[in-house]
Amino acid sequence: MVVRTIPVEDFDLVIFGATGDLARRKILPGLYRRYLAGQMPAEARIIGAARSEHSDQDFREEVRAAIYEFANGVDKDQIDAFLGQLHYVAIDAKGTGGWEQLKKLIRKDVVRAFYFSVAPSLFGDLAKRLSDYGIADTESRIVVEKPFGRDLESARALNATLAQHFEERQIYRIDHYLGKETVQNLMAVRFANILFEPLWNAQFIDHVQITVAETVGVGGRGGYYDNSGAMRDMVQNHLMQLLCLTAMEPPYHFDPDAVRDEKLKVIRALEPVAEGDIVRGQYQASGDAPGYLEDAENPDSRTESYVALKVRISNWRWQGTPFYMRTGKKMRARTSEIVITFKEPPHSIFDESGTQRANQLVIKLQPDEGMDLTVMIKEPGPGGMRLMQVPLDMSFADTFGPDGAEMPDAYERLIMDVIRGNQTLFMRGDEVEAAWAWADPIIEAWEQSKAQPEPYDAGSSGPEEALRLMHRDNRRWKEIRA
Ligand code: BG6
């Protein structure tokens, strides 16, 4: 099955921070891949903007190198044509340098989008200059990266700053987890099938597990990470979005505000998390692998590189069904999945004691995207009525075959959505604020306590305490496996 690609309208996309890490790793290689897929029109232009002076040609050569390093395959015949669509302007975000030049360069009759791949402290300066110089108009779009604040107060301040120059319908707050294929498939599975939705509630679901385990540590970005920790870096945004899509009510239509209204209701229904329902961990050296303190270059750090927590949603659908979430760095394997564990049948007619009988739906985000539904069947053979659990496995790569298997990276999809003007997969300002309002007391409680994070070995499944969080409820985490 071949994946269809529909070209987007002609556009000028300005990337502020075009020489930074995110632009090199994700944004520019992602655009190149969309170009190869035929989605980026031949007239469209990408304008890199950053502080340093570069000619267009220098910038193109830098982007060429980034594409070779990160684009996962290069078409030598087409790369020059793509690079020819790139331009560069040296810009002073806090001053006047470069803005007139940018104004001259930008076209008025195409979609205009401005990607703020810079520190949040510059968002206000950029937004102001874009409107003061008349570079952006009421139809232009701005894209802002996380972290969107570090607490409710700073997120509110950022929202207020952006709102001075842009309307909410023009602001695209990125959470790249929303661009992942399976995350959107979660909505398709839930709301385009009759099979699951009738069972999708506390009556039939015992509990939900959301795991985002990474093998990388924080080496190289310890400065940022040490000030942030897993709660701010992963839970408040990525895991929260996964929770929302799993738990939300069906929106009346697949429309940006309808979807975001439903997600917001979930966040607002979250109960405060008691200190006894949260475990924070920090990886320690194991074998040759350095520990967190060394990676973060802060021997006294109490910052958590791992969090596990039990979350309750206070509404009719989920009363009595806990959501357990965990995320950590330097774990045994890179795996992100949502596991829905259904309740066991109320009565078994089979004589099977000790068999795990609950159906599980495993929604796999990475590394291999797909879904597994475990069902009970009879063990084949003449040995009587013995039951076993088997997975009904749907791997997207297998289903879509070699032509369609290469799913666009989250950033590719999201940038194309910006050009199309579709905000469904972007966070609305009130959503971000609600997520901070929930996370703030958890973070504050930790910052005020004197407790130390639970140690776990680099390359393990996380701290022992996190296992106990489940065991005391007679449940178990799904094993983290490579
Ligand atoms: C980022 C976090 O938002 O997401 C990183 O800041 C994390 O710490 C990354 O490593 C994980 O993204 P992915 O797509 O690799 O799961």
Question: How is this structure best described in words?
Answer:
The protein has 482 residues and is of the alpha/beta class. The model has no long low-confidence stretch (mean pLDDT 93). The two termini are 28 Å apart. It has helices spanning 21-36, 56-70, 79-83, 99-105, 123-132, 152-163, 181-191, 222-226, 229-247, 256-268, 292-295, 396-404, 410-420, 429-448, 464-471; strands at residues 11-16, 45-50, 86-90, 111-116, 141-144, 171-173, 205-213, 278-284, 306-311, 323-328, 335-342, 360-366, 370-378, 387-395, 454-457. It has a 9-stranded mixed β-sheet with strand order 14-13-12-11-7-10-9-8-15, sandwiched between helices. Helix 5 links the parallel strand 4 (111-116) and strand 5 (141-144). It is 34% helix and 20% strand. Bound molecules: 6-O-phosphono-beta-D-glucopyranose (BG6). 6-O-phosphono-beta-D-glucopyranose (BG6) is lined by residues 146, 176, 214, 233.
Beta-strand portion reads 15-25%
Spatial shape? globular
Mean pLDDT: 93
Succession of helices and strands: EHEHHEHEHEHEHEHHHEHEEEEEEHHHEH
Low-pLDDT runs of 5+ residues are none
